[in-house]
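Box 4.2: Ligand-aware structure prediction
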Amino acid sequence: MEFIFKKISSLSAAFILVLLTAVFIVLFLYAKPAIKKYGLHFIIDPRWDVSVPIKEKTPTKTNNIKSQKNKNNNIEVSDADVLAALGITNTNAKTETIYGGLVPLVGTILSTLIAMLFAVPIAMGIAIFLSEISPPLINKPVGIAIELLAAIPSIIYGMWGLFYFGPFISHIFGGSSVSLLVAGLVLGIMIIPFMASLTRDSMNTTPNILKESAYAMGATKFEVIKDIIFPYARKGIIGSIILALGRALGETMAVAFVIGGVFTFPKKITDPTVSIPVVLANNFAESSGMSLSALFYLALILFILSFIIIFSAKFYFLKNKN
Amino acid sequence: MSEKLEKVMDIKNFSFTYNGANKPSLKNINLPIYFKKVTALIGPSGCGKSTFLRSLNRIHDLYPGNKYEGEILLKDIETGDMENILKYKKENELIKLRQRVGMIFQKPTPFPMSIFDNIAYGLRLMGKKNKKFLEEKVEEALKSSALWKEVKDRLKDDARGLSGGQQQRLCIARAIAVEPEVLLMDEPTSALDPLSTLAIEELVTKLKEKVTIVIVTHNMQQASRVSDWTAFMYLGELIEYGTTEQIFISPHEKRTADYIAGKFG
Ligand SMILES: Nc1ncnc2c1ncn2[C@@H]1O[C@H](COP(=O)(O)OP(=O)(O)O)[C@@H](O)[C@H]1O
Ligand SMILES: [Mg+2]
């Protein structure tokens, strides 16, 4: 019996590893054409779905429909477009479509960063309030409310962001009602309940007798929280932050509504831009060939980015103390 | 026992009721605590020993709604006056009280920090920052609690890596580092093995040169080994109080005699 149990549990653990590798391999295989064509330059190339003439000059009669219907109302206009607009009939030039991942990559990192900067202090505050300050009478209902908020599907946060929160923010900070800032804040709001309830749970694992010992030394409530509860629950708290970070990095629906979905660099925090999951969700249906492969390349980058961030966070915070 | 006895605490007509309880857990307790003596509190489980001890540093105040009645007087070292600690209202008065009346718990409670930081914790709370001063005080406290030799080479290690007995001595060192006038101990050896228990008992005997100790124990031998005065409690009341010798050899009350003889508890 024990043998079987051991076998099953180690099989389940192995399954996770297999799954992880399988996902990685699939992403890699589909992304391979794009990886071959653009290499690592993909990461620093801000152009997406932009037609450029091919360097070699072989005058053939091909029309450049592609460059004319530049769907992504991109400010950067390709050379071919300029020439066409000027009436210079260089329409013989061959064009190719370029895909680069810099804009969504930056959008993902910045929106997540804004979300974390906004969410961590508030979530910690809520957790401290619930575990150490609020009377039991308030504790229960607020705790339940937080758990309900954490369970709301992200698309609802997105809709709320689009119709209410975005206009509200643009009213205060100016700029567009869909923007990097709105996306970051909606993401932040979405992960706050989740982070707060996990953090509260780990703070609650601090034994009463330990807290009492600190009070018995003449510590104040603030000192007990800072010196005893936080260090004691450190692992759980950091774990909850990392889990929330992972959710923010990969969040699609909440962000899709409020980030704008345009392939431009945000010059200000209130400008619209795009993030990797949003690009994937918006473009998958209509993509094939190289554009599909480029999407897989983006997905692979997101996968590796999450991996690196979460691993370095774990390594940095959980290993290097004492 | 012909030496002059000096009271450091005096408990008068003290009753205590927990929040929401319909009757008091402690009823009309009268008890002196003598300076630089060890007072043992004995009695069957649930008789109110911990409740009483936890009143002496007002740690009960962490939880709302508990009711104190009567007086708990503590001597002011400077003026020599006895001050009623139940009158304290402000947070800083309670903090000051807890620095003067330290506490050791049933289980060792090392803080999640290094050995050094554990011992320096109370001093730092008092605003002491000078590194040299802290180092001296930490060494002194560790020596007084017979832990210095074992930990002097690993002061930077996490205190939770020590053995149970070492952890409890660490807690004692931490408590005496702030030089309290009274040290409360609530069954400090109940989670320890016999050898560690012995080490703590020796420590208690040694420490009373410096600090007044009130110790709760359900171990009769321990009470007789370490204490000068013994109080026997039963169902929230103080049944008998006297020198340890008198309580153990010729108790006046039948219940005391029965308890000591192991007939109940
Ligand atoms: N937090 C509490 N709330 C209400 N009653 C309590 C609480 N703690 C202890 N009591 C009650 O007070 C009485 C004395 O308990 P305690 O002081 O812990 O006894 P002892 O330490 O002598 O074993 C017991 O009847 C116990 O049930
Ligand atoms: Mg007890």
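In the box above, the bound molecule is magnesium ion. Residues 131-144 of chain B form the longest helix (14 residues).
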